[in-house]
Write a structure and sequence with these properties.
Elements: H1 18-23, H2 25-53, E1 59-68, H3 84-87, E2 110-114, E3 134-138, E4 141-143, E5 146-150, E6 155-159, E7 165-169, E8 177-181, E9 187-189, E10 199-202, E11 210-216, E12 221-223, E13 229-236, E14 238-246, E15 250-251, E16 256-257, E17 260-261, E18 268-273, E19 278-286
Parallel strand pairs: 1-19, 3-6, 5-11
Antiparallel strand pairs: 1-13, 2-12, 2-14, 3-4, 6-9, 7-8, 7-10, 10-11, 14-15, 14-18, 16-17
């Protein structure tokens, strides 16, 4: 067979051995490319498995307790002028600023990760819990005072009282609404967009009734309990802004940690989350003066 055109064509009538194929530069190049693709694919799979194995090391937890600098203020009773036969017998009081009488813990301070960027979410938190969050009208008050909701998550507004209530929800980025809540027939709602601030909820029938909705597109939101404690689990490692908010002052104006003012800017505090560690902020003192501001 003629070999002068070996790099261009090989006559099918000519026999050749594997050794001849390896001598052919075209065949050698194809072999090299195939080997390289296989090697890179194996490397990518190895990196992916390693990342999955190390996933638990890329998340941390934040805990702390927010306490008032002064003793709990005197309870302000509510003057019930509507449906007094039901609402007037339960001992209602102003819940816009609630401080524990024994340990000064401040209830209902909201804390959330504040960013416009996409937030990595821990695999266990990708989907919201299957149970719908609920705000109940019970004893002529909203319970809870602050409800956290994920975008796209159905939440319910209930009426467990024997009197009529409504919910006026003053959303900004979503469509606001005001509807009567029938007894034992919950309203079901959901929001498509995250709200930049907590959304006020009123009962137009009973003027003292107020609550708040925090609508977020990630799960890193919490509210202090009756002792002022809070915890946010499985936060992505790194530096993140966390916003501290209360319904009276709005953005928290001052917090004191370890005897020094926290570096707050519009309620934002930059915290560094260390992988596989708990950032315990301890007792954080909130000067009482900021809560005497006009109620929002």
């Amino acid at each position: 067979c003629g070999q002068g055109l070996r790099l261009v064509m090989i006559s099918p009538s000519c026999s050749h051995s594997p050794h001849d194929e390896m001598e052919n530069p075209l065949m050698s190049a194809q072999y090299f490319r195939t080997s390289l693709i296989v090697a890179l694919t194996s490397l990518a799979a190895s990196v992916s498995l390693q990342h999955d194995a190390d996933a638990d090391d890329t998340w941390g937890t934040i805990t702390g307790r927010i306490v008032c600098s002064e003793d709990a203020p005197a309870v302000e009773k509510i003057d019930v002028e509507r449906d007094a036969d039901v609402c007037g017998i339960v001992g209602l009081f102003d819940e816009s600023f609630v401080v524990h009488r024994d340990n000064r813990g401040i209830r209902n301070i909201a804390i959330w990760l504040e960013t416009r960027d996409r937030v990595p979410v821990h695999p266990d938190l990708k989907d919201p819990p299957p149970e719908a969050p609920v705000i109940d009208n019970r004893d002529c008050r909203f319970e809870p005072r602050i409800l956290t909701v994920r975008t796209g998550q159905i939440f319910e507004l209930k009426n467990s009282d024997p009197v009529a209530h409504n919910a006026a929800v003053y959303a900004r980025r979503n469509t606001p609404f005001s509807e009567i809540i029938p007894m034992n027939q919950p309203l079901q709602k959901k929001f498509a967009k995250a709200e930049t601030l907590p959304v006020r909820v009123d009962c137009s029938i009973h003027s003292w009734m107020k609550a708040w909705l925090i609508v977020s597109d990630h799960p890193y939101v919490t509210v202090t309990d009756e002792d002022g404690r809070f915890e946010i689990r499985n936060v992505p490692a790194g530096e993140w802004k966390f916003r501290f908010w209360h319904e009276r002052p709005g953005y928290m104006q001052m917090l004191v940690t370890n005897g020094q003012p926290a570096p707050l800017e519009k309620g934002n505090w930059v915290l560094n989350i260390t992988p596989d560690r708990t950032l315990d902020l301890g007792d954080i003192i909130a000067p009482a003066g900021q809560f005497s501001a006009e109620k929002k």
